[in-house]
Amino acid sequence: MSTDTTRSAILTAAERLYAERGFGDVTLRDIVAAAGVNLAAVNYHFGSKDELIAELFVTRSIATNRERFNELKAAESAGGGRAPIEAVLRALIGPTLRGCLGQDSERSDAARFMIRAAIETIPPIRKIKNREIDHLRKFAAAMRRSLPGKPDAEIYWGLHFALAMAQQTVRDSERLLRLSEGICDLDDVDGVIDRVVAVASLALKTGTTGTGEAAVSRRR
Amino acid sequence: MSTDTTRSAILTAAERLYAERGFGDVTLRDIVAAAGVNLAAVNYHFGSKDELIAELFVTRSIATNRERFNELKAAESAGGGRAPIEAVLRALIGPTLRGCLGQDSERSDAARFMIRAAIETIPPIRKIKNREIDHLRKFAAAMRRSLPGKPDAEIYWGLHFALAMAQQTVRDSERLLRLSEGICDLDDVDGVIDRVVAVASLALKTGTTGTGEAAVSRRR
DNA sequence: GTCTATAGACTGATAGAC
DNA sequence: GTCTATCAGTCTATAGAC
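^ inputs. structure came back:
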């Protein structure tokens, strides 16, 4: 029990401090001071600073991935094993955007921690993201069921672009806000999700193989 | 002259080492050893490690931004002051993608440095990126000329999504390659540019205000 | 088993001699 | 401008107290 409170105190303090000040500005000594525990406790419970960060990130990632997967399964079973492409894309990007955008996320340390993790790419987190591919494969498979006959390359590019738009919106929300001088409303999370889903599904349905107007205008 | 060779030696060595090993694994002592100069020379010539990195990044950024702007002006004067939206988007994302993707970039330290800068977001580089907004405003203005009557919010979202797809493709090329098992060809730089331009211009022409099928299917 | 205290090796930055 | 010497801060790792 004593061990668990120490462990939890470190996790809670670390998540809050990283959320507030970013990874670069927070030392282990800051964390143990905030948690009211000793410096060596970090090494004892987590092995290293990187493994502490990894545990924080893995916990939140698993939650998001489960949410994504539940939404996907719900959409597919509602459609008898096949969901419209819009629903698949919504299941892919909805949980991340709802977690990181909007008013509620202002208060949650977990949400702000995940935004930091999206912005400040540090080695322990990058390693975990690289193991995410198996999870994405399930969405590629669902997209194939939604769009039978669509070439695999198109599926992967569509998945990639959908994730790109969602992640960049989380990562660079400040740039978009300042560029648009507040015209683009990032607090309207459902509206943002709609936009990303609309663009990605439009691209997937139309096809962007280089036969479109862009390629033609390039060849002129 | 003697001062300039020391300064240049530091810049060259730093760019190569950061390109090869990333920002986290390279110390000032590594850099001065590779450059054959004294440790204190870095602080004398640049003030700090961060300012050295900033100078490297600013130099390359200015080159890219000039390339973007020249392409934009060429496209607009060819069309009598107004370019097709595809050409504007191509001027925006083409220089970055050509610089960071493809075969040629394998050899250039500058290209690999910029890829690192896109992946490992560190404070000195983030600060510079935040000052890039004035540059982007010129592209928003050109897009408005291409699509008269289009609401400003649509313009900004289209610009944001185009940049998102381009930057994420540079940043996460490895994930897309592994996910698609090589089916998505990232060495075909013009093909990638075509795809991003096609998706972004499609989104801008169609409109994604939440009246599309995505929003409708959400409201069901 | 759990934690404290401390050791030893790094880092970036700087004062001051030349 | 360049260099030596050194600072203060961080990290991992561990001996030994409880």
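Chain B has a mean pLDDT of 93. Chain B touches chain A through 62 residues (CB under 8 Å).
thumbs up if we can close this ticket
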